[in-house]
UniProtKB/TrEMBL annotation, chain A:
Domain (ABC transmembrane type-1) ranges: 79-267
GO BP: transmembrane transport
The name this protein goes by in its record: Binding-protein-dependent transport systems inner membrane component
Main location: membrane
From TrEMBL, chain B:
Keywords: Membrane, Transmembrane, Transmembrane helix, Transport
Gene Ontology CC entries for this record: plasma membrane
UniProt xrefs under Gene3D superfamilies: MetI-like
Membrane topology reported for the UniProt record: Multi-pass membrane protein
The protein's name: ABC-type dipeptide/oligopeptide/nickel transport system permease component
Native source species: Methanothrix harundinacea
Residues in ABC transmembrane type-1 domain copies: 125-340
Membrane spanning residue stretches: 34-52, 124-146, 166-193, 213-235, 272-297, 317-340
Length: 287, 351
């Protein structure tokens, strides 16, 4: 049965909600300069800890900076890290998983051992360790997160490629003498589409989460505004009323981004899984 | 293809990675390479611990001990440290000295606390153990029961509410959940203390002391459980749904078993296996989650210690904490893998 996966994602409530949330965050991030007249580090003339007003939608923080502007630019950081890691992990996953499945043999076994060992490494710890010594910046963060999160994807891509490899059109191409790179780019990758996107969404979610958590710990690019860093600063002022328009909106923005990614990922995975799809159509109450 | 199926059976990936663990467990068992991956992972962390400070430009002693140490540095102390770390010798000998020191339990000296790193960590460890231990037990049990009830009533109101509600909760990062609970129950309602693990100078003993500790534990515990209960819940629910379609459930029904018997004894017991995996998976997330939640509540555990070590650039302490956490995470994973093969006869036969 041929199922239009994308159609099912857009049709499901979960998928709609997820895509809407992601779309909202992308709009906020892209149009940040349009949506706010300030820059994130600008010390405005408004007193510190001002309440929300027409000029400052979310008030100002302890350094007279506009919180709404910081929120917008924080979205940029989160989405950059999420998107960057998703792209890079997908690339590594295809290269490792795809070639391992095509070549097989010792090459395959070697990479699967690397995958197993990398999976056992606790990633939060490695990143904190490296970032404590090297001055963290956005690029380093993306590279580190990708280096630690590709194995899951590589494994799935390998499994999927192994089944695709046996399909008729791939065998046909092989009979005509197609090389491995041609097979991978022209025949395997196009069929991997939905699964690849599911992996990318998962990796992006983890990356956004980790970036926020690490900058909440103080491990962040000093020149870049990020949600985790805003929460780290705002946390100190819970005895004032400012948390209502500083701490809470920032945390909500982060949570909504994460939820957007999980919801989209969930609906995509349900669309890919015949068993879960069947479960959705028969509401027999479980008896 | 098998890997792919497992991945979907585990349901949505929210804040944890079911497929990763399932695959990991399976792959490990299949190849009988039980310990080697853990050893490799451990060696990677050890190497990073060793290489990173020595890779830094400038004086390695400063990179290893941080700036705090330089204030207390005298020529004698410097000479002693250089000989202790074998810094005047080749990299190979330095590594040997490093490993030998670790084997004798020497994680270095924290100049901020002016104590051995190991004894600093041991001072803070009990609170983290209390927090993660209770969170693990409660979220597993709650996830199991909610999952069984929800899966049994698939498609009905309770199931839908639980599924949506728990999915929603798991979307929060644990430190933000902690902040929300702190603000609502601590700042606004004044029901829970804002920081610490017990009331200082209270002179409480016995039961009142236990209640005081519990009172301080409630909010951080709730933050961890609310975010982490979903993984066990979703796994149990999915297994319940597939198990309820099996023939033996029909038999049980036909011979007149009560609802409760079918739910818990027949179907529920079959959901235990994936929950073991889920629990194992949960441990690393709970440990790192607890690190963050402790910071939010200024709960005097290892996470709070790590945060302060990062702020004061107390490098020996950072390294020591991360090494201990790595060992804890790897041991937990290993234990679950072993337990998994014990619980599922199919796995041990396959080996």
């Amino acid at each position: 049965m041929h199922v239009n996966v994308w159609h099912e994602v857009v049709e499901s409530n979960m998928g709609k909600a997820g895509l809407l949330l992601i779309g909202l965050m992308v709009v906020l991030a892209v149009f940040a300069p349009v949506l706010s007249p300030y820059s994130p580090r600008e010390n405005t003339s408004t007193p510190a800890f001002s309440r929300p007003s027409a000029d400052h939608w979310l008030g100002t923080n302890d350094a007279r900076q506009d919180i709404w502007t910081q929120l917008l630019y924080g979205a940029r950081t989160s989405l950059t890290v999420g998107f960057g890691v998703a792209l890079l992990t997908a690339l590594i996953s295809i290269l490792v998983g795809g070639t391992a499945a095509i070549f097989g043999g010792l090459y395959d076994r070697f990479w699967m051992r690397v995958v197993d060992a990398t999976m056992a490494v606790p990633d939060v710890i490695v990143i904190i360790l490296v970032a404590a010594y090297l001055r963290p910046n956005v690029l380093l963060m993306i590279l580190l997160l990708s280096a630690l999160s590709w194995p899951g994807g590589a494994r799935v891509i390998r499994a999927q490629t192994l089944t695709l490899k046996e399909r008729m059109h791939v065998s046909a191409a092989r009979t005509f003498g197609a090389g491995w790179s041609h097979l991978l780019v022209r025949h395997i990758i196009p069929d991997l589409g939905p699964i690849l996107v599911a992996i990318m969404i998962q990796d992006a979610r983890r990356a956004v989460f980790m970036e926020a958590g690490l900058s909440f710990l103080g491990i962040s690019d000093p020149s870049v505004m990020s949600w985790g860093k805003m929460m780290q600063y705002a946390r100190v002022f819970t005895y004032l009323e400012v948390w209502k328009w500083w701490l809470l909106p920032t945390g909500l923005a982060l949570s909504l981004t994460l939820m957007g990614l999980s919801f989209t990922g969930y609906s995509l995975e349900s669309a890919l899984d015949p068993r879960l799809r069947e479960a959705d159509h028969h509401h027999d109450g479980g008896i | 293809m098998q890997d792919l199926e497992m991945r979907h059976l585990n349901g949505p990936e929210v804040g944890w990675d079911g497929q990763k663990a399932m695959e990991k467990a399976k792959a490990l068992l299949r190849r009988g390479t039980f310990f080697s991956n853990y050893i490799i992972a451990f060696v990677i962390i050890l190497t990073l611990n060793f290489v990173l400070p020595r890779m830094m430009p400038g004086d390695p002693l400063q990179a290893i001990y941080g700036e705090e140490a330089l204030l207390a540095m005298t020529p004698q102390l410097e000479a002693e440290l250089v000989s202790r770390l074998a810094l005047d010798q080749s990299i190979g000998q330095q590594f040997v000295a490093y490993i030998l020191a670790l084997l004798s339990g020497d994680l270095g000296h924290s100049y901020y606390y002016n104590q051995e790193v190991l004894s600093v960590i041991l001072d803070f460890l009990p609170w983290t153990l209390l927090l993660t231990g209770t969170a693990l037990v409660i979220s597993t049990l709650a996830g199991l029961i909610l999952g069984i009830e929800s899966g049994y009533r698939r498609g009905r109101q309770l199931d839908k509410t639980l599924l949506a509600g728990l999915m929603f909760l798991s979307g929060f990062p644990d430190f933000f959940m902690g902040i929300v609970l702190l603000l609502v129950f601590g700042v606004v309602m004044g029901m829970v203390p804002l920081s610490g693990a017990l009331t200082p100078y209270s002179g409480l003993e016995g039961l009142p002391l236990a209640l005081d500790i519990l009172h301080h534990l409630l909010a951080p515990l709730a933050a961890l459980v609310l975010v982490r209960v979903t993984s066990a819940y979703l796994l149990t629910r999915n297994t319940m749904i597939t198990t309820l379609k099996e023939n033996f459930i029909l038999t049980a029904r036909a011979k007149g078993c009560t609802e409760g018997q079918i739910k818990y004894r027949h179907a529920g017991r079959n959901s235990l296996l994936p929950v073991v995996t889920a629990t194992g998976l949960l441990i690393p997330h709970l440990i790192t989650g607890a690190l963050f939640v402790e910071i939010v509540f200024s709960y005097p555990g290892v996470g709070w210690l790590l945060y302060n070590a990062l702020l004061t650039r107390d490098y020996p302490l950072i390294q020591g904490i991360l090494l201990m956490v790595t060992v804890a995470v790897l041991l937990a994973n290993l234990l679950v893998d072993l337990l998994y093969s014990k619980l599922d006869p199919r796995v041990s036969h396959a080996r």
